[in-house]
Specification:
The protein is mostly beta strands and 329 residues long. 2% of the residues lie in helices and 50% in strands. The strands form six sheets. Strands 3, 5, 8, 9, 10, 11 and 13 form a seven-stranded antiparallel β-sheet that branches. Strands 16, 18, 21, 22, 23, 24 and 26 form a seven-stranded antiparallel β-sheet that branches.
Length: 329
């Protein structure tokens, strides 16, 4: 269809007649009873659209409080037989270790109640269909009540950092759950041959010492083995410093949602949204990498430049969970 441009010169107003415009479809579930050991399909949509809103709240029927943050969601995009995305709502908003701090939030995500009120505006495009399933965690109470809302919008562009992404863009989830890393071990959080833009990174780690935070984030472009430092330490990536010296925080684009440092156990979780801090890459091979602890150059003292140098501090094995959401085309 050709669009007709009509200009009302007297008023200085222009409109495009016949061009597609956004249409939002909304759906909700009220007081759905969930039972242990069962999987429930909450929502199915046929067509081409973008998920623009996700909200839920829930409580255990035994009176144990919030259940929403722990529910296991599985999402199938465009008829996939295997899960396209898997997450708990807490992980979706960058919170680890089932922390229930509330209220907090930004335009894109947050938590507005100690009993749920979790929301996300992460844009999820699909071209044929989308399906949301939910199940209770196996180690949870026997039943829960769920309230849930979702909205999808047709003819809606994906925009990151003010840039409208190509129409064939897909959202890819790189998901690592409870991975055990040895001292100074590397892990690639993202590895792709596509062009794209990192949208959000969530990370949690626990270790017997805090020195895993010496680990730098690195990027590798175009299949090269030459590193580009993304951060000069773990907490530096989250815009903090000196092992999150000011404690936990939740800001619109970045946060350290859990900061627990003890004599024999350190727990950290955080999120980074790459909107005002864009992170685009081209085709030909891209990796986002982190190291569990790091080394320094024995001659210059610079960290993360000599991978075979002596360790900074005394990093030990860590158990990490990570989700990186990347738009690719």
């Amino acid at each position: 269809m050709y669009s007709l441009l009509v200009c009302l010169l007297a008023c200085g107003v222009c409109a495009v007649i016949g061009a597609p415009y956004p249409i939002t479809k909304t759906y909700g579930v009220s007081q759905l009873q969930l039972q242990q050991g069962k999987t429930y399909t909450l929502y199915q949509y046929e067509g081409t659209a973008v998920v623009t809103y996700f909200w839920l709240t829930g409580t255990w029927n035994n009176g144990a409080g919030d259940s929403a943050s722990q529910m296991n969601f599985t999402v199938y995009v465009d008829g996939a037989s295997r899960a396209t995305y898997q997450f708990t709502p807490n992980q979706l908003i960058g919170v680890g270790f089932n922390d229930l701090t509330a209220p907090w939030g930004s335009d894109m995500m947050g938590r507005d109640s100690s009993l749920g009120g979790i929301y996300s505006h992460m844009r999820i495009p699909f071209f044929k269909s989308i399906r949301y399933d939910v199940a209770l965690p196996h180690d949870a109470p026997a039943s829960s009540i769920l309230f849930w809302q979702i909205r999808v919008t047709e003819n809606y562009p994906i925009v990151v950092s003010g840039v409208t992404l190509p129409p064939q863009t897909r959202l890819v989830q790189y998901n690592f759950q409870s991975v055990n890393l040895t001292r100074l071990e590397f892990i690639d959080f993202v590895s792709t041959s596509n062009a794209g833009a990192i949208y959000m990174h969530f990370f949690q780690s626990e270790s017997s010492t805090a020195n895993f935070m010496e680990g730098c984030y690195r990027a590798y472009y175009g299949g090269s083995q030459n590193q580009s430092l993304v951060s000069t330490g773990f907490e530096d990536y989250y815009q903090s410093a000196y092992y999150f010296a000011a404690g936990p925080y939740r800001q619109p684009g970045v946060g350290a949602t859990v900061v627990q440092m003890g004599a024999s156990l350190t727990r950290i979780s955080g999120y980074k949204v790459h909107d005002t801090d864009p992170f685009f890459f081209d085709k030909g091979g891209f990796r986002l990498q982190w190291r569990n602890g790091d080394t320094q150059d024995p001659n210059t003292g610079q960290k993360c430049m000599d991978s075979n140098g002596p360790a900074v501090g005394n990093p030990q094995a860590s158990t990490i969970t990570s989700m990186t959401w990347v738009y690719e085309w």
